[in-house]
Amino acid sequence: MTRASSRRPGPPTRTERGIPEATVARLPVYLRALTALSDSGIATASSEDLATAAGVNSAKLRKDLSYLGSYGTRGVGYDVEYLRYQIAREIGVTQDWAVVIVGIGNLGHALANYSGFGTRGFRIVALLDADPNLVGERIGDMEVRDFAQLEEIVEADRVSIGVITTPAGPAQDVCDRLVAAGVTSILNFAPVVLSVPDGVDIRKVDLSIELQILAYHEQRKSGEAALPQVPELPAMNGLPDLPSVGGGVGA
Amino acid sequence: MTRASSRRPGPPTRTERGIPEATVARLPVYLRALTALSDSGIATASSEDLATAAGVNSAKLRKDLSYLGSYGTRGVGYDVEYLRYQIAREIGVTQDWAVVIVGIGNLGHALANYSGFGTRGFRIVALLDADPNLVGERIGDMEVRDFAQLEEIVEADRVSIGVITTPAGPAQDVCDRLVAAGVTSILNFAPVVLSVPDGVDIRKVDLSIELQILAYHEQRKSGEAALPQVPELPAMNGLPDLPSVGGGVGA
DNA sequence: AGGAGCTTGTGAACGTGAGAACAAAATCGG
DNA sequence: CCGATTTTGTTCTCACGTTCACAAGCTCCT
Ligand SMILES: NC(=O)c1ccc[n+]([C@@H]2O[C@H](COP(=O)([O-])OP(=O)(O)OC[C@H]3O[C@@H](n4cnc5c(N)ncnc54)[C@H](O)[C@@H]3O)[C@@H](O)[C@H]2O)c1
Ligand SMILES: NC(=O)c1ccc[n+]([C@@H]2O[C@H](COP(=O)([O-])OP(=O)(O)OC[C@H]3O[C@@H](n4cnc5c(N)ncnc54)[C@H](O)[C@@H]3O)[C@@H](O)[C@H]2O)c1
């Protein structure tokens, strides 16, 4: 995303050290599955085993792994430890990445308390908030610091990843500050579309959207042949008034 | 089979009341953008306006909307309220969906405190946990209840959506219980692949995976031509020992 | 040593999604 | 009433992603 190689339009850009985005999104799942197998004392696994553990089909898994190189052994399978290292290296989690979290409210607290990041290659180096009442609060072995200190922290700790858990309103401002400070990857939880310059990657997590996608399919299930057909085209004046369905941008 | 009227393999099964999955995933984003425009007092918007607000390109937006019907006016654009209602109806959030949350730890608390669900068509009807110390705790206007009460709650409140925020270990068991109780859509936050029977939809949110995807691209940025090439094939014996990179299944 | 039996890696077929481009339909000014 | 202008809805093409199917390659047994 954002980081297009060099826009060569010609041939399919064969393995120019580039892995398809869909594959990149699955590598962490494979990594998790391999770690689970490893923890169970399993030393070798076939693509079938791995695929089952990762919840995908085995052809897809093999093709995904083939982008990294030939790390399996025909007739045998994959060495769990070896493959785990190769995937970790490819993703980049053999090193630790410094992360700041901005907005230590409900969600920020939960993330700050979460132990799972440290074991997966990420180190939270600061919890930032603009609310003076929060600054100074201790969470685990960290302390909430003033958002104004962002720039010095980013520089001192070489922070490249920022997590935004503020309300939607200030999210774009916070994002701009992060980018200006030198952060080049952002994970956004606020329900708003953030714009960033080229070279900065952004991903979003929106729980309401996930629920709405489930609701869509849920509606299909019940309505398969049961519900009385919903009115197709209610007159444009006099809509059944939605009590703010869809939700505003509000916190 | 060959001549059966269902499962026609020929043409792309033109609009058999089916909307492409990629489009379904964007409809909530459009809904949010429309709500924001509506709140700003804007009554009409062109596909270009809407696309900007939603962070997509306008051709894609128009094509997405065309799956729902012809709700725009050529030369003018879309009536914001009208389109908002149509999308809300298509997604199914003109009605309220009952939701239970299982596992009221760090993340469960954050979700329980979140006001954004109610305004988007979802009603949290129960917070469930297996820990007796948590049962009875008040969060907002709700009280944590015993997980054992799951079945009666699902039946009483016609719950169709369940959210899992337990540790990875018990997640599959919790999932099975939810399904057995009648829940047919599940949103899973535990870092583990859950298996469900046909007819049950499942979506996952995994923050570590999001961070790892960012890390992959981040690595590419710095390594574009700078880093000394990482050793391509370390000997299979004597791997640089990862201090549990990839993270176990542990909570 | 040689063949049987597995399992990987990949070429090719198929399906889905994205974006450019444009004809059709609506408004508006004269 | 007509033509200029705007913007939608749709068609066409290309890119991307998934799945099938199988030759290549490895191990093990006889
Ligand atoms: N809590 C949830 O379960 C949940 C679910 C889905 C989405 N979200 C989204 O996540 C975000 C955070 O949710 P929350 O419930 O934690 O909200 P919250 O109100 O509890 O916390 C927001 C925090 O951000 C801080 N903040 C506000 N402006 C700031 C600024 N300019 N700079 C730095 N910090 C600032 C506030 O002081 C507060 O501590 C919101 O955008 C919300 O929509 C939350
Ligand atoms: N907290 C985060 O920021 C975060 C981030 C990423 C992923 N996660 C994942 O989300 C999940 C929850 O995280 P958390 O930090 O809230 O964990 P937590 O340990 O704080 O909370 C888990 C809760 O689940 C309850 N529970 C355990 N077994 C149960 C069972 N069988 N039935 C019902 N309830 C049960 C526990 O009593 C506890 O209250 C974990 O799987 C974690 O890996 C959390």
From TrEMBL, chains A, B:
GO MF terms, alphabetically ordered: DNA binding; DNA-binding transcription factor activity
Keywords tagged on the record: Cytoplasm, DNA-binding, NAD, Repressor, Transcription, Transcription regulation
DNA-binding region: 29-68
Subunit and partners: Homodimer.
Residues annotated to bind NAD(+): G103, I104, G105, N106, L107, G108
Any single GO BP term: negative regulation of DNA-templated transcription
Species name: Kribbella sindirgiensis
Main localisation: cytoplasm
Record domain CoA-binding: where: 92-193
NCBIfam families in alphabetical order: PRK05472.1-3, PRK05472.2-1, PRK05472.2-2, PRK05472.2-3, PRK05472.2-4, PRK05472.2-5
Name this polypeptide is given: Redox-sensing transcriptional repressor Rex
Pfam families noted in UniProt: CoA_binding (PF02629), Put_DNA-bind_N (PF06971)
